[in-house]
Design brief:
mainly alpha; 2 domains; 8 helices; 0% strand
Amino acid sequence: MEKRLRVSSTISLILAVISSCWIVFNFAMYELLRPRVVNLEPLGKLEPLANFIWIGYWVFILYHFSAFLTYIFHLQWFRKINVFNILLLISGIFSFLVIFGNWAILGDIGKEYKEGWDTSGEWIILYIFLVINVIFYVMMFIFLVSNLRMLKMKKDIQPVKKDEMVFTVAQYVGIVCGLLGLLWIILNVIVYSGNIRHIKYGMITCILLLLPYIFIVSYWFIIKFRERIEDWYDEKQWKDVARAGFTTLLISIPVMIMLFIATFNTLPGGLFGILWLPFYLFVVLFIFSLSTLYFYSKS
């Protein structure tokens, strides 16, 4: 694990330097492009250089995945979750999401520029997203340098019990992604209700919000793949998961019923528009009862 963390930290640090240089390049390109785009002037020689902005986004995505993996390895090895680590996780999720936001906004700017429309508002959002990326990059750079320094100290680390840090991080990621997803859905319902274009972007954003959680859960499944299901958690973790599952069942069903009643008159046409709640209830009931019976028979 120590070697894995050292290699991962080094790779992430290299990618951090490359990504930081690319962010500086992007900022310089924004400053050169913005006056011409806002004033609807020809881009001239800047147009071929602007294509490198798109290449940089792929580097940013690769860096975020590498950083997230290093973050998991760090917690598995050092077994410490402090305020800085939590803030780093939150800023990392935001930074990952705004990469795709930048992508979408630049695409909109390009289309609106060709149509001769005003793009000044989009540029403000683009700079805000850039600041979010910079905040994460600075925090991650501090984290990576600290990682490598602590590894040089060669402190004796006790083995992690049942990968408890991966288990804990998964819950933090789930909380952040779940909360952001709910806020995003509420924003779309209040602000963009009925706008098909924004509904489409809203669905894409919801999928992107799930990616960090899918990534951490996929990693957890990989490290648990060769173990029996009974050995995936220790006894306390099994009890915690069971309580959380039962609590989710008790709370989610009334919430879905209230949502169904509140929106009944605005439900879309078609069979599934009416039957989505019964479908949800029967699926949850089937899975919960089947899994409970299965685990009870194995105990």
